[in-house]
Automatic annotation (TrEMBL):
It comes from the Bacteria. InterPro entries: Porin_alphabac. It comes from Bradyrhizobium centrolobii. Belongs to the alphaproteobacteria porin family. GO terms for molecular function: porin activity. This is Porin. The lineage of its organism: Bacteria, Pseudomonadati, Pseudomonadota, Alphaproteobacteria, Hyphomicrobiales. Residues 1-23 form the signal peptide. Transmembrane segments: none annotated. Consists of 16-stranded beta-barrel sheets, with large surface-exposed loops, that form a transmembrane pore at the center of each barrel. The pore is partially ocluded by a peptide loop that folds into the pore lumen. It is found in: Cell outer membrane. GO terms for cellular component: cell outer membrane; pore complex. It is a multi-pass membrane protein.
Length: 525
C-alpha cells in the first residue's frame, strides 16, 4: 500500500513538471488591439487617441497663390520699392503654403480641456533690396547709404539673394510660422490666440486682402491670458490681458530725429518705443443669435517711450495710456439668398492706432505716381501712422484714428459666390504734434510750397469671386483698390530717395492709388 501511494505521488509530480515545461514553451496570449474610435462629442473629424479619453482632430490646407501689383502677400504697394512704381517693383509675388492644425479635447469635471496648435510652412517670392545710387564720385550728402560704395561709386542693386524674412525667396529656403497655440480650461484661454478685441471675421469681412483698415485684425494670434463668462442664450463677456508688442503698437516718433529723407519715406522722426511694461487690457461683450451677432470691444494700451537720447541720463517722457473702442454686427441668411452674410464694424482709437490699422499695414506710406505739373519730376503721397508724437524734452501727443469696414457675400449657387467689401479710415494729429512736424527744419529743407498737414485718410474697395467645384477645393480672385488721401499740398524739393530709387527733384504732393489682384487655389482637409 505504501509503495502504491509513493508511485501515485511520484507520477503526479512528474506530470506537473512536464506540464510546466510545456507551458513555458507556449506563446503568451496577446492583449486585444485598441482600434481608433470615432469621437462624436465635438463634431465631425474627431477620434479618440487610443488608450485615452482625449479626442483629436487634424486639419489644415494647402494653398498656391500669386498676387499682382504688390511686393508682399497680400498687401498694397504702399511704400519703399512697392510704392516706387518703377523697375525695382515686383509686378507679381508668388507663394506656396501648407497649414497644419491639431485640436485636442478632453471632458473633465471642470468642463472640456482643449489645446489648439496651428503652424504654417511656406515659400514666397523674394523682393528687391537696396537701390540704384546716383552716378558720381561722391556718396549722397557725403554720407554712405545703401546703394553706394565707400568711395561713392555706383552700385546697382538687383534682387540680390532675394530673400524675405531671411529665408523666403532663397532657392531652397522657406518660412515656418506659428499662428495659434493655446490651452482652454474652465473659461480661461492661455497662449497665442486671436485677440478678444477682434470681430469673429478678424480682418476679413468678405475678402482675402490682408490690409483692410477699419478695425482690429490679428488672425495669426497674440499671446494672452483671458477669461470668458458664458451667461447662456448666446451671451458671453470676456476680459483679457494681451501682449501689445507683436501686433498692437505702432510708432512713437521723436521729431527731434526727423529728416528730409525720412519724411519722403513716410517717417516723422526716430521711432522711440520703449520696452513693454504693461499688457493691453481688453474687454468684450458678444451676443450670438440665429440672425447673426453683435459685439462691443474696448482696449487700453500703454504707450512707453525709450530715452530722449542715446543713454538713460538723457531722460524720457512719461507714459500715457491710449484706448480703442469697436462695435461689430453680422447678419446671416439675409433675404438675398441662403447663406448670404453681411459683416460691418466701426472703430475709434486714441493712442492705440493698430486697433484700426491692422498689423499687415505699414506705419509709413510713400507712394509715387505721375504728374501733370510743369517743373515736377513725379508726384508723391506721404503719410505716417503712429500711436504718439513727441520732441526731446516734451510729452507724448497721442494720435487719433477712426474708421469702419464691411463686406457682403452672396451665394449664386452651391459652387459660386461673390463678395463685395470696403473700408475707410482717418488719422488725425493734434495741434501740438502738427507743430512739431511742420515746424521742423526738415520741412524747411524740403521747401514745401503748399500746406503742411500730416493727417491722412485711406479708402478701400474690392470684389472677390470664389468657385468651389468640389468640396474643400476653392479657386478665388480678389481685386482691391486702395487710395491714400494725404493732406499735404503744393510741391517739395526732395533729396535722393535710395529705398525707392528716386532722384533728387521737385515732386508734386498728390493722392495716390494702389491696384492689386490676388489669384488663389486652396485645398482644405
Amino acid at each position: 500500500m505504501l509503495n502504491l501511494r509513493s508511485l501515485v505521488l511520484g507520477s503526479t509530480a512528474g506530470l506537473l513538471t512536464v506540464s510546466a515545461a510545456v507551458a513555458a514553451d507556449l506563446p503568451v496570449k496577446a492583449r486585444a488591439v485598441e482600434y481608433v474610435r470615432v469621437c462624436s462629442l465635438y463634431g465631425a473629424g474627431f477620434y479618440y487617441i487610443p488608450g485615452t479619453d482625449t479626442c483629436i482632430k487634424l486639419g489644415g490646407y494647402l494653398r498656391a497663390e500669386v498676387a499682382l501689383g504688390t511686393i508682399s502677400m497680400y498687401n498694397g504697394a504702399f511704400n519703399s520699392v512697392g510704392g516706387s512704381q518703377n523697375r525695382l517693383s515686383n509686378y507679381y509675388t508668388a507663394r506656396a503654403r501648407e497649414d497644419l492644425n491639431i485640436d485636442t479635447r478632453t471632458a473633465t469635471e471642470y468642463g472640456v480641456v482643449r489645446t489648439y496648435f496651428d503652424a504654417v510652412y511656406h515659400w514666397t517670392t523674394g523682393s528687391y533690396v537696396g537701390s540704384n545710387s546716383a552716378t558720381g564720385a561722391t556718396a549722397y550728402s557725403g554720407t554712405l547709404v545703401a546703394g553706394t560704395s565707400a568711395t561713392g561709386s555706383t552700385t546697382l542693386y538687383g534682387s540680390g539673394s532675394g530673400n524675405v524674412n531671411n529665408t523666403d525667396g532663397n532657392t531652397s529656403g522657406g518660412g515656418l510660422g506659428v499662428y495659434l497655440a493655446f490651452i482652454q480650461f474652465a473659461g480661461f484661454t492661455m497662449g497665442k490666440a486671436v485677440s478678444q478685441f477682434d470681430a469673429p471675421w478678424t480682418g476679413y469681412p468678405a475678402n482675402n486682402f490682408d490690409s483692410l483698415v477699419g478695425g482690429g485684425a490679428d488672425p495669426t494670434g497674440v499671446n494672452q491670458f483671458t477669461y470668458t463668462a458664458d451667461f447662456g442664450q448666446g451671451v458671453t463677456a470676456t476680459v483679457s490681458a494681451q501682449d501689445q508688442t507683436a501686433y498692437f503698437q505702432s510708432a512713437i516718433w521723436n521729431t527731434s530725429g526727423i529728416s528730409p529723407s525720412g519724411i519722403m519715406g513716410g517717417s516723422y522722426g526716430a521711432n522711440t518705443l520703449g520696452g513693454s511694461r504693461a499688457p493691453d487690457l481688453v474687454g468684450m461683450v458678444r451676443v450670438d443669435q440665429a440672425w447673426g451677432l453683435f459685439q462691443a470691444s474696448v482696449a487700453a494700451h500703454d504707450n512707453q517711450t525709450g530715452y530722449y537720447g542715446a543713454t538713460e541720463v538723457a531722460g524720457h517722457a512719461a507714459d500715457k495710456w491710449g484706448w480703442a473702442a469697436q462695435l461689430a454686427l453680422s447678419f446671416k441668411n439675409i433675404p438675398t439668398g441662403a447663406g448670404d452674410t453681411l459683416n460691418v464694424q466701426g472703430v475709434y482709437t486714441n493712442g492705440a492706432s493698430r486697433y484700426n490699422f491692422g498689423y499687415n499695414l505699414p506705419a509709413s506710406f510713400s507712394m509715387f505716381g505721375s504728374t501733370g505739373l510743369a517743373g515736377a519730376y513725379q508726384s508723391v503721397a506721404i503719410a505716417g501712422l503712429s500711436d504718439a508724437v513727441l520732441a526731446t524734452g516734451g510729452s507724448l501727443q497721442l494720435t487719433t484714428t477712426y474708421g469702419f469696414r464691411g463686406g457682403y457675400t452672396h451665394n449664386w449657387n452651391p459652387y459660386w459666390n461673390t463678395g463685395l467689401y470696403g473700408a475707410w479710415a482717418a488719422v488725425r494729429y493734434n495741434g501740438t504734434a502738427k507743430g512739431l512736424i511742420c515746424g521742423s527744419a526738415a520741412i524747411t529743407t524740403l521747401a514745401l510750397t503748399g500746406t503742411c498737414n500730416p493727417d491722412f485718410n485711406i479708402g478701400q474697395a474690392g470684389v472677390i469671386t470664389r468657385w468651389t467645384p468640389v468640396k474643400n477645393l476653392t479657386f478665388s480672385g480678389d481685386f482691391n483698390w486702395t487710395r491714400l488721401d494725404q493732406k499735404y499740398s503744393g510741391t517739395i524739393t526732395a533729396p535722393v530717395t535710395p529705398a525707392a530709387g528716386k532722384p533728387a527733384a521737385v515732386y508734386e504732393l498728390k493722392d495716390q492709388n494702389s491696384l492689386t489682384l490676388l489669384l488663389r487655389a486652396q485645398r482644405n482637409w
